[in-house]
């Protein structure tokens, strides 16, 4: 069988998937990922996008969701880092008032030495943020365990339901067989009753015919 020249190999699909997932984790656009892959494979970005949406994407749905979660975590970490840097800069380099600025103080030098109270306040803020992160992590782990328990319970109930359905089917089959047996028994009883009635009539007729012969 002849292979098309524009056919995608397994290695190219892997490169496309890894690049797109990386761009998702880093908060970049998929279009940029398609352009990057296109440069490496000498294909157009449109061709890469079509291949991703038509074939590759559906094979990596779980990885895409995980990449989106990592992107959110990365964004949150960057925002927290910026916040810490801003707080550290505010502590280390407080704003100069107009009088000191007029005296020619350099804005790149601290106006006053860093105090112990400021260091303690900054470290306490860092500790609070770390405690909040740890609490969030523990809550996430608790929810994961709870979800696993519910999934296990759901699986048990599903198996129990299958067992009850199978048992109900067996009972139904037994009931239908019993009904058929009873119907056949009634039919046989009716036929047997008809035969007994005919025999009785014949015996009675024979008896009436034998009585005159006995008197003569």
UniProtKB/TrEMBL annotation:
Coiled coil in keyword set: yes
Domain Myb-like, first and last residues per copy: 1-56
Species of provenance: Geobacillus jurassicus
InterPro entries the UniProt entry points to: Myb_dom, RsfA-like, SANT/Myb
Keyword Coiled coil: yes
Keywords: Coiled coil
Residues annotated as domain HTH myb-type: 1-60
Protein's recorded name: RsfA family transcriptional regulator
NCBIfam families in the record: DNA_bind_RsfA
Coiled-coil intervals, chain numbering: 116-174
């Amino acid at each position: 069988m002849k292979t098309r020249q524009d056919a995608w190999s397994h290695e190219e699909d892997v490169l496309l998937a890894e690049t797109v997932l990386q761009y998702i984790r880093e908060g970049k656009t998929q279009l940029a990922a398609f352009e990057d892959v296109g440069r490496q494979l000498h294909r157009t970005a449109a061709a890469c996008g079509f291949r991703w949406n038509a074939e590759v994407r559906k094979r990596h749905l779980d990885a895409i969701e995980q990449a989106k979660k990592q992107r959110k975590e990365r964004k949150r970490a960057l925002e927290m880092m910026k916040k810490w840097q801003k707080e550290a800069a505010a502590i280390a380099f407080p704003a100069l008032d107009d009088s000191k600025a007029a005296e020619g103080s350099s804005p790149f030098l601290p106006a006053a030495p860093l105090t112990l109270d400021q260091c303690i306040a900054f470290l306490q803020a860092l500790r609070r943020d770390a405690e909040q992160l740890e609490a969030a992590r523990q809550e996430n782990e608790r929810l994961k365990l709870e979800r696993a328990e519910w999934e296990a319970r759901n699986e048990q109930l599903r198996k129990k339901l299958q067992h009850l359905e199978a048992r109900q089917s067996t009972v139904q089959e037994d009931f239908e067989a019993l009904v058929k047996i009873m119907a056949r028994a009634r039919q046989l009883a009716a036929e047997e009753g008809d035969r007994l009635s005919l025999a009785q009539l014949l015996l009675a007729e024979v008896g009436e015919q034998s009585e005159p012969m006995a008197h003569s």
